[in-house]
Amino acid sequence: MKLSRISILITAVFLCFSCSGNEKKEIKASEILKLLKKGEAVQIVDKIILDDLDFVSAKEPFLMSNNTLQTEITSNIFFSNCVFMGKVTTNGQKEKFGITSVFKNNVSFVGCDFRGEVNFENAVIFGSVNFSKSIFRKNTSFNGIAIWSKDSYFSEVKAEDDFSMIYSSVLGNLYFINARFDKNASFQEISVKGKLSFNNATFQQSAGLDLIEVYERAFFNYVTFEKEANFSNSKFFQTAEFVNAKFNAKGNFEKTFFLNTARFDGVDTEKDLILTETFFGNKK
User: Fold this and answer.
1) Beta strand 135-136 with 107-110: parallel, antiparallel or unpaired?
2) I want to staple 159 with a disulfide (CB 3.0 to 4.6 A). Which of 21, 30, 163, 166 is the partner?
3) Distances in Å between the alpha carbon of 15 and those of 9, 20, 22, 140, 174?
4) Is the CB of residue 107 less than 8 Å from the CB of residue 83?
């Protein structure tokens, strides 16, 4: 009986410590900037980040052109299961100069909850990129971003407000598998040198995928488009798959170039797809 009571007591104490360990502790954004200024790695797990996290203020920017300054960040950046209460930005303005950020190492925000706006416009990233399982609750922009790494992961992200990645360049593979976009999603004029995958993604509002270029295989299998999906004037250099995709509104492929195989097996459409002047190199 005594052993049993002791076991129960030990278990209770263990659970108590486990619960307290799972509580997120607050950390100021200024503490993160101090690490970046020293060039130290940022590895933060299960924290609430207060205030705005402004990467351009991490280091003193240097002149890139007549009207552009650039902040170079050499640290490896890793956040997991964190909550960002303020904005997260990589660009800004200083007098007559625009400021952008260059990340020389990996940038990871895995399973994070962004309560404020996220703005990575015109950022350059040389390391791997991973935003998998993160939630974007406000307007999110990756417009003009340049990613030089082999793989960029946005799998299972959820965007509750407008999400955009227009005029961007990705030199490797880009994954939005199982992503969900509750508002407008814009990817116009994005260039992906590797593979592009939106398999099992859901677009609740308009999906802007016009003027995109994908140089390796593109996957839109089992994607649901609740509103208009615009792929007009896009170019797919290798196989493009739309197997079992569901178009609940207009699907526009006007003047789209499928230079290799285009697969539309099992596509479900409420309206006919617009295929005016669409080029098929090899349709299956």
Assistant:
1) unpaired
2) 163
3) 10, 9, 11, 38, 41
4) no
Q: How confident is the model at residue 275 (pLDDT cuts 50, 70, 90)?
A: very high
Please state which of the ranges 69-73, 96-100, 101-105, 204-208 shows the lowest mean pLDDT.
Answer: 96-100
Buried b (16+ CB within 10 A) or exposed e, 156-166: bbbbbebbbbb
Structure tokens at 173: 């593979």
pLDDT tens-digit series, residues 165-209 = 999 999 999 999 999 999 999 999 999 999 999 999 999 999 999
What's the Cα-to-Cα distance from 68 to each of 33, 117, 118, 169, 172, rounded to whole Å? 22, 23, 21, 19, 26
Task: In whole angstroms, give the CA distance from residue 116 to residue 31.
Answer: 19
- Please name which of 233, 244, 143 lies closest in space to residue 186, comparing C-alpha atoms: 143
First vs last Cα of the chain: how many Å apart?
72
Query: Tell me, what amino acid is at 202?
Result: T
Angle at alpha carbon of residue 191, lines to 190 and 193, rounded to 5°: 150
Residue 250 has pLDDT above 80, yes or no: yes
